[in-house]
Amino acid sequence: MSNLTRLKVALVAFLGLLLALLIFTDLPDMGRSPVDAVFFVTTPADGGPGSLRSAIFGADRATVQARIVLQTEFVELTTPLPPLINPEGIVLESEHQRTELRVADLGPRPVLGDGAEGGVVRGVEIRDPAGLGILVRSERVQLERVTLVDCVTGVHVAANVDRMVLLDSRLDDNETGVRIESAGTGLRLESNEFARNRTAIAAIAPRPGGLPLGGQPLRVKGNTFEEDQTGVLVSSLAATIDQNRFARIGGTAIHVATSTSRVLANQILDGRHTGILLDGTVGAAVIENEVGRNEAIGIHLRSARNSSVRTNHLYSNGYGITTMYDQGTSPNVVADNLVVDHRHDGIVVLAGAPILRSNRVLRSGVAGIRLLDMTSADGPTVEAQPLLSDNTLSGNQADDPVRAVFDGGGRRDIDG
After folding, report:
1. C-beta of residue 68 within 8 angstroms of C-beta of residue 54
2. Is the distance from CB of 133 to CB of 110 less than 8 angstroms?
3. Fewest beta carbons less than 10 Å away: which of 22, 32, 58, 241?
4. pLDDT grade, residue 344 (50/70/90)?
5. Are residues 87 and 66 in contact, defined by beta-carbon separation less than 8 angstroms?
6. How many CB atoms lie under 10 A from the CB of residue 133?
7. What are the Cα distances from residue 15, in Å, to 11, 22, 27, 320?
């Protein structure tokens, strides 16, 4: 066989092999996005090439996790955006410090809404949407460096959502900053700033429910709250509220209702009403908080059971610690607290039988400890019968416990 013939045979074999590869190899679909599909937003317009709307359509069609990069400093929105529904997740982030989504009145529709797990929104600002800023309906969603201002609700976490995280974000002047309707596991709000919201955080499960075995309670950690009407409201779900700073709150800084929660190492100063309220809680704990200069009450327990208030530092509030309607069969424990310089009474017990142990109550304007029996025209008197053990009372106007009767219209001193 000549060299030319060999060359022809080799060429035919090579072309045959190439054809087989083209036929039998699963080539990429040219309509698909590549791995880590990236879509760039290059125009602030509401639609068209390079718009956020076009990028979301492309990211939703991708078969892998998609990334949308906001290269403009703002985006104009006149109609609702499509939801983020890529099942592999979408990362929406600004190339700048933040990109503002300027919205017209969208009614009850959210400005941003997810429908798939694992999404990330980073560096987005939403102002005055006359409705809902961000709706979270899926698991493993992370919101980071978002700003929400003048919303009816800034972030709404729907029922049955697990592992949602809000980090390093700012929520100002909203009716509700964050509304959580899920009693799920692994929800975390950390290192955010809240200011002038009617309610900064409202975590209200539709019905009481326990965490699954090994589940993690809602975590509210390391946030700052300034001049909100209510700081944190938690009802019907478990939460750990720790290392937050509250300043000049108009109502109650931390209100825990009918849930087993822990309130740890928070600073609550200069509020116009109450620092911490345990309202019908069972097994809650309030430990190592600094509560000072609140006009009404530092720490208030109302119809709580088997809850503990320990090693807190309270000073210069209207009243220090007050307990109402404590259940004697499951008494609350108030122990090892420093209660100093209150305008009125240091500790007040109204119609209950808590355990008061090893507290230091100093320099109260009236009584160090006041015991109020509850009476009414149509029922028996319920006495205040706390167990007092090793408390130190010094420098109060009255260092011995003062007993009085409360009849609903006010109190009548019996002694002191």
Report:
1. no
2. yes
3. 22
4. very high
5. no
6. 31
7. 6, 11, 18, 90
Would you say 186 and 208 are in contact if contact means Cβ atoms under 8 Å apart?
Answer: no
CB 266 within 8 A of CB 246: yes
DSSP of 300-365: EEES-BS-EEES-EEESSSEEEEEES--TTS--EEES-EEE--SS-SEEEES---EEES-EEE--S
* Phi, then psi, of 138 in degrees rounded to 5: -125, 165
Residue with tokens 């704990």: 285
Q: How far is CA 292 from the centre of its chain?
A: 23
Token pair for residue 93?
A: 């982030």
Distances (CA, A) of 225 to 86, 92, 400: 35, 27, 38
CB 370 within 8 A of CB 336: no
* DSSP calls for 248-298: S-SSEEEEEESS-EEEES-EEES-SSEEEEEES-BS-EEES-EEES-SSEE
Q: Is 180 helix (H, G, I), strand (E, B) or coil?
A: strand
pLDDT for 347-402, tens place per residue? 999 998 999 999 999 999 999 999 999 887 777 888 899 999 999 999 999 999 99
